[in-house]
Amino acid sequence: MRLTTLQKFLWAAVAVALVAVGAVFLLVDRSPEPIAQAAFRPTFSLPDAGGRLRTPADFEGKHLLVFFGFTNCPDICPTTLAEVAQVMDDLGDQAGKVQPLFISIDPERDREMGLAEYTEAFHPSILGLAGDAAQTRAAADSFRIYYEREANLEALDVYAMSHSPGLYLISPEGDWLGQFTYGTPASEIVADLQARL
Amino acid sequence: MKRIFATLALIAAAGPALACETVTVGPLEVSQAWSRASIGTARPGVVYLTIRNSGTADDALMSITTPAADMPMLHQTVMTDGVASMPHAMEVPVPAEGQVALEPGGYHAMLMELTQVLEEGETFPVTLTFRDAGKVTIPVTIQNIGASEPTCPSPDE
């Protein structure tokens, strides 16, 4: 019986997600502004796990490799963070010129569960940032990425977020350089970075 | 690559556990079952595996159970216009004379409410229930938290 109720909830979640995705599609359609405009500078102001407020200025001189996700996500978030870890290993001596950032889109829960131990389990260089709701929304808007809680499933504590899972590359000057879509092999990302470093 | 070798070394060191087992039920063969190590039990775990169907009729994976989690569920990561969502999968189709993989970025079994920490190098059993072929249990190899593919070779290799 428990499963039946759960299934109803989950189908409701699917419906909400579909509507949400449809809404985003329409919004995107109405503002066909190219994302690769020169001098597009996404920004953020978010605390790290130690509570220190971080902005792009903290990482001057480094390329930023930014991923939005949440630690309660068993499939694509670990897969992407593992790929980032592989990239950092493969960069070798040049790894110091790249700062990977994991920006939580479920910040309250991620702080409770331990953001730093999670990101460090993948690679010690990955820095996790988790702000409040307004800071998080501002960062996501600035990167023009989408995330949404799919339905009010808090009580069930299930998979309740959908989001844009790409890796975003920012130049040392803060300019948007591009996006590696989900599933881009680590070797391609490494080659792209090596050409820039 | 280093990571893969490290994982292989750990599995080898763990001795003749039931890692990399291939099991069959009716015309179905299940192999390469793997998971990722967990930090504690608060976050959900995952199970990936490959199912081959040598039969002439379609089948479907309907549900999974495991002592490692109180609420395991089948999900599918779906990408729509660059947005990923993870709806519950009511069933995972296993086509006749074909195969389906639970793999990163696609179908996956999500282990909610872990009952134990998933330790790298260990295994835990998962029982799969198919619509027609029935139930079969396979040991799942726990790989590194940063693993992205199974270390167990495909049964053909």
TrEMBL record, chain A:
<feature type="transmembrane region" description="Helical">
    <location>
        <begin position="9"/>
        <end position="28"/>
    </location>
</feature>
<dbReference type="InterPro" id="IPR003782">
    <property type="entry name" value="SCO1/SenC"/>
</dbReference>
<keyword id="KW-0479">Metal-binding</keyword>
<protein>
    <submittedName>
        <fullName>SCO family protein</fullName>
    </submittedName>
</protein>
<feature type="binding site">
    <location>
        <position position="77"/>
    </location>
    <ligand>
        <name>Cu cation</name>
    </ligand>
</feature>
<feature type="binding site">
    <location>
        <position position="73"/>
    </location>
    <ligand>
        <name>Cu cation</name>
    </ligand>
</feature>
<keyword id="KW-1133">Transmembrane helix</keyword>
<dbReference type="InterPro" id="IPR036249">
    <property type="entry name" value="Thioredoxin-like_sf"/>
</dbReference>
<feature type="disulfide bond" description="Redox-active">
    <location>
        <begin position="73"/>
        <end position="77"/>
    </location>
</feature>
<comment type="similarity">
    <text>Belongs to the SCO1/2 family.</text>
</comment>
<feature type="domain" description="Thioredoxin">
    <location>
        <begin position="35"/>
        <end position="197"/>
    </location>
</feature>
<dbReference type="Pfam" id="PF02630">
    <property type="entry name" value="SCO1-SenC"/>
</dbReference>
<keyword id="KW-0472">Membrane</keyword>
<dbReference type="InterPro" id="IPR013766">
    <property type="entry name" value="Thioredoxin_domain"/>
</dbReference>
<keyword id="KW-0812">Transmembrane</keyword>
<keyword id="KW-0186">Copper</keyword>
<dbReference type="GO" id="GO:0046872">
    <property type="term" value="F:metal ion binding"/>
</dbReference>
<feature type="binding site">
    <location>
        <position position="163"/>
    </location>
    <ligand>
        <name>Cu cation</name>
    </ligand>
</feature>
<keyword id="KW-1015">Disulfide bond</keyword>
TrEMBL record, chain B:
<feature type="signal peptide">
    <location>
        <begin position="1"/>
        <end position="19"/>
    </location>
</feature>
<dbReference type="InterPro" id="IPR036182">
    <property type="entry name" value="PCuAC_sf"/>
</dbReference>
<dbReference type="InterPro" id="IPR007410">
    <property type="entry name" value="LpqE-like"/>
</dbReference>
<dbReference type="InterPro" id="IPR058248">
    <property type="entry name" value="Lxx211020-like"/>
</dbReference>
<keyword id="KW-0732">Signal</keyword>
<dbReference type="Pfam" id="PF04314">
    <property type="entry name" value="PCuAC"/>
</dbReference>
<protein>
    <submittedName>
        <fullName>Copper chaperone PCu(A)C</fullName>
    </submittedName>
</protein>
